């Protein structure tokens, strides 16, 4: 159950809606001749030396945006952060490219971009925006006041945009008490977007009433990051399978439910870079009968194709079996699975979470400031 109001619970017609999205997308350099077509240019000063490597987070925001458009919101103002500019303007972390991608994805909708988050330029951009149009503000983290959770910063944004309602749809940042996740909820009515609702409901369900057999797959490199998750699911899961660098470094199970990879694929120097065939086969056996699978942490050095074997096998088993409730979380894991989906769109998962730290904290039972401040049902 989701205990907060969502966009479905309020009247958005003829209102200026301020939406916190998560457009912290990966950017990569554009090689000469790499693009198949010219990008849609919202502003000719955008950095044409970069392109968006994955638009998963932009695509994930579309259901809420389309809902607002369909229910006749007057104007939609989007805000997000990108990267870690440490409170300073950094052209390479501008959200202009995201505005261009949005314009491409929302054909027929006016999508504008403004080079600030508050002040006269923003006011003018909002005024000039036609009804049914979208305006994306510049990177919130170009100001240190965003991460300082400054109510004054939040108020400047609200006043400059003339927003009447705030919609929190950036699941990946709701574990942070920032101006755009916490302070702003004290200024205007605040509700959840459809992505936030889906993420919280799906992740909460597997901590409350997962269908069994329930298998939790834990990979990655840092035991300290994953131990709270292991502890949380020890009573809930039927099996917790540990792979990745954690297993390679000799993780010692504390319970018979915890299985740890025992063989590994190594490089010429003897470094253990993927779980081996015996351990992979054991995991595959577990997945054949699983009804619910939570996967957090890749099982090998997936950036090297030679050591992505076990992770690819697991991803394909989950993506090809709709009978399994499959939840993928953690930045590296979600990114890896997403790259496979780009190659094979037939792969389908119950949830590829857009939130790394947020998902871990929610699954571990911690409070999320960006959710707590929303209006209760």
Fold and architecture overview:
With 377 residues, the protein is α/β, with parallel strands linked by helices. It has two domains: 7-196, Phosphoglycerate kinase, N-terminal domain (Rossmann fold, 3-Layer(aba) Sandwich), CATH 3.40.50; 210-363, Phosphoglycerate kinase, N-terminal domain (Rossmann fold), CATH 3.40.50.1260. It has helices spanning 56-70, 96-105, 120-128, 144-147, 151-161, 194-208, 223-233, 244-248, 277-289, 309-319, 331-343, 357-363, 369-372; strands at residues 16-20, 27-29, 50-52, 75-79, 111-113, 133-136, 165-168, 190-192, 214-218, 239-242, 258-260, 264-266, 272-275, 292-296, 325-329, 351-352. The strands form four sheets. It has a six-stranded parallel sheet with strand order 5-6-4-1-7-8. Strands 11-10-9-14-15-16 form a six-stranded parallel sheet, sandwiched between helices. Helix 11 links the parallel strand 15 and strand 16. The radius of gyration is 22 Å and the shape is globular.
Provide the descriptors you would attach to this structure in a database record:
377 residues; 16 strands; 6-stranded parallel β-sheet; 2 domains; alpha/beta; Rossmann fold; globular
């Amino acid at each position: 159950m989701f205990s907060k109001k969502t966009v479905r619970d309020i009247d958005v017609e003829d209102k200026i809606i301020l939406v916190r999205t998560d457009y912290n997308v990966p950017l990569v350099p554009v090689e000469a001749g790499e693009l198949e077509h010219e990008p849609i240019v919202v502003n000719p000063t955008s950095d044409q030396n970069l392109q968006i490597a994955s638009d998963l987070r932009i695509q994930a925001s579309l259901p809420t945006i389309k809902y607002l458009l369909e229910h006749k919101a007057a104007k939609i103002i989007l805000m997000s952060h990108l990267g870690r500019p440490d409170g300073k303007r950094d052209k390479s972390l501008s959200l202009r490219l995201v505005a261009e991608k949005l314009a491409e994805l929302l054909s027929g909708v006016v999508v504008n971009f403004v080079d600030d988050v508050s002040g006269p330029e923003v006011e003018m951009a909002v005024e000039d925006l036609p009804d049914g149009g979208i305006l994306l503000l510049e990177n919130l983290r170009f100001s240190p006041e965003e991460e300082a959770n400054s109510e004054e910063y939040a108020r400047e944004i609200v006043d400059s945009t003339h927003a009447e309602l705030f919609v929190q749809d950036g699941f990946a940042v709701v574990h942070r008490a920032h101006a755009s996740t916490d302070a702003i909820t004290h200024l205007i009515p605040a509700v959840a977007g459809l992505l936030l609702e889906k993420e919280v409901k799906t992740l909460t369900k597997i901590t409350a009433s997962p269908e069994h057999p329930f298998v939790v797959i834990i990979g990655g490199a840092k035991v300290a990051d994953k131990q709270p998750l292991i502890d949380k699911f020890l009573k809930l899961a039927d099996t917790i399978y540990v792979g990745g660098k954690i297993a390679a470094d000799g993780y010692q199970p504390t319970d018979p439910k915890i299985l740890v990879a025992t063989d590994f694929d190594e490089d010429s120097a003897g470094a253990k870079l993927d779980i081996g065939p015996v351990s992979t086969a054991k995991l595959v056996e577990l997945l054949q009968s699983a009804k619910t699978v939570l996967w957090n942490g890749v099982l090998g050095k997936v950036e090297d194709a030679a050591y992505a074997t076990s992770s690819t096998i697991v991803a394909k088993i989950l993506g090809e079996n709709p009978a399994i409730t499959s939840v993928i979380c953690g930045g590296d894991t979600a990114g890896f699975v997403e790259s496979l989906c780009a190659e094979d769109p037939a792969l389908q998962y119950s949830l590829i979470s857009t939130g790394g730290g947020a998902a871990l904290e929610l699954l571990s039972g911690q409070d999320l400031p960006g959710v707590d401040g929303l209006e209760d049902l």
